[in-house]
Amino acid sequence: YSSNARNFNRLSNGDSSGGSVYNNSPVTPVSAKRRAMVGCKVNNARDEVSRLENASKVMSEKDCNMRVMGGDTEFMLGALRKLECPTCPYGIEGA
User: Fold this and answer.
1) CA separation (Å) from 7 to 86, 87, 90, 94?
2) If exposure means fewest CB atoms within 10 Å of the residue's CB, which of 19, 41, 64, 93 is most exposed?
3) How far apart are CA 75 and CA 88, in angstroms?
């Protein structure tokens, strides 16, 4: 009951994070890849990447995943840092 009460209290205050804390500056390559892959699933994060890179169209989820799996994570982590929102789902504004 106490954990449900904490979650209800958090939700009633507008906090949709579920109590999770997200790190958009992970220290290991594996955790950076994992966090960037989460960002690839969020349209708002891919939109932000397009704005940061001055791209003419929004990157598809597939293209984003391929780029992250190829080892480039910083493009997405940079976008996630700009969209950081501790009270939002996944810690991403607009998710």
Assistant:
1) 15, 12, 15, 20
2) 19
3) 21
